[in-house]
Amino acid sequence: MPTTLLPSDVLKRAHAIGNYYGFAPLSTLTHARRGQNVKAPYPDGFALDTLDPAAKEVVALLKQVRDSGITPSALQPLFFWHSNAAAGRPAPKQIVIQFHVLGVEHAIGDAVLIRAVRALMQDLTKSDPHLKLNSMGDKETRSRFARELTQFFRKHGPVLPEECVNCAKDGDILEAAQMLARSKEDSEHLPSPTDHLSEASRKHFECVLEYLETTDTPYELAPDLLSHGSSWAETCFDLSIPNGNGNVHAWGSRYNELARPFFKSAVHSIGAVIRINTTNREPIAPVKERAAPRFVFVHIGDEAKRESMKMADELRRARIPMTQAMGIASLSEQMRLAETHNPQYLLIMGRKEALEGNVILRERSTHTETFIPLSSLIERLKVVG
């Protein structure tokens, strides 16, 4: 049976999760730039009919970002989410929520996105999602992997499912591999892209895994998880509910080449598409605007960012009104974003504080700073907030 969650509750939870992990609703970002929008067609040579369904949804969103005049970059990356469900409209049969990180090359972009999507699914289903993870690598990797797959299908063709072999003969070798992986027949010897990763892709994937492990995020390496078509590269992941009925499911990947035509320069990009089947078709009630956060968490260095990821869910469960820009390395950019929220307090953590298990609480009006152990942070913030 489809989930009985009200669509308005789904949006409310997406707003809350986004806030704690630093993802803004795309509608808020575009509204802030109202009057600066320029409608433009899809980039020249962009063949929509060749894209898989997930890629079509992503490029439609990338077009909205470009048309709104937002230009993500490494200095000012963009963390946002969007849904096909909107207040005042009847709920769609399938609610689609997308989370995206544009402008972050480092593996922390992958880790933050995965953590946010996992937290949303956990909140919606009250179950721990099962995370499967793989890497398709860069162009160099995919070329090597495609050659290996071609040899595999030539060698094992007589004992493989006919539809998979025919697909490989037609030239869509990755689709043939996906079909074989889905069938679970004779797929145990299917080549894995991680065996053919370039040095850069190997380092990136290892860094993603390190972030997940140090933030206590359970995962399963899945060699048979292959990204959909040529639009996707590097990290790909799948989140499902164990023993569930498939009504809440997420899939994500990096897609640098897919985003390239929409911006003036290459933008490192990763996104996830969450699909939620519901039974409610009534017009969606408006989501109550959240009050401005009393706390903004600013962190410098990998150690601090890992701690902030682990703390995000604890602070959310404790209903501490906080936000942060987890994937942004620049302190000045984090402080600029903090100013837009105008919080009463800043939580500040650098490498030294992370290693010592402390965080600095700064009251912005007086510049008073207090060191608080992480073990007592939530209780202290409840008193302060």
Question: What's the topology here?
Answer:
Layout: H1 7-21, E1 24-25, H2 26-32, H3 53-67, E2 78-83, E3 94-102, H4 108-125, E4 130-135, H5 139-156, H6 162-169, H7 173-183, H8 199-214, E5 220-221, E6 233-240, E7 248-254, H9 256-259, E8 269-277, E9 295-299, H10 302-317, E10 322-324, H11 331-341, E11 345-349, H12 351-356, E12 358-363, E13 368-373, H13 377-384
Describe what this molecule looks like in 3D:
- The relative contact order is 0.16.
- A hairpin with a 7-residue loop joins strand 6 and strand 7.
- The protein is α/β, with parallel strands linked by helices and 385 residues long.
- The chain is globular, with a radius of gyration of 22 Å.
- It has helices at 7-21, 26-32, 53-67, 108-125, 139-156, 162-169, 173-183, 199-214, 256-259, 302-317, 331-341, 351-356, 377-384; strands at 24-25, 78-83, 94-102, 130-135, 220-221, 233-240, 248-254, 269-277, 295-299, 322-324, 345-349, 358-363, 368-373.
- It has 13 helices and 13 strands.
- It has an 8-stranded mixed beta sheet with strand order 1-2-3-8-7-6-4-5, with helices on both faces.
- It has 3 domains: 7-137 and 198-277, 2-Layer Sandwich (BirA Bifunctional Protein, domain 2); 139-194, no CATH class; 295-384, Rossmann fold, CATH 3.40.50.
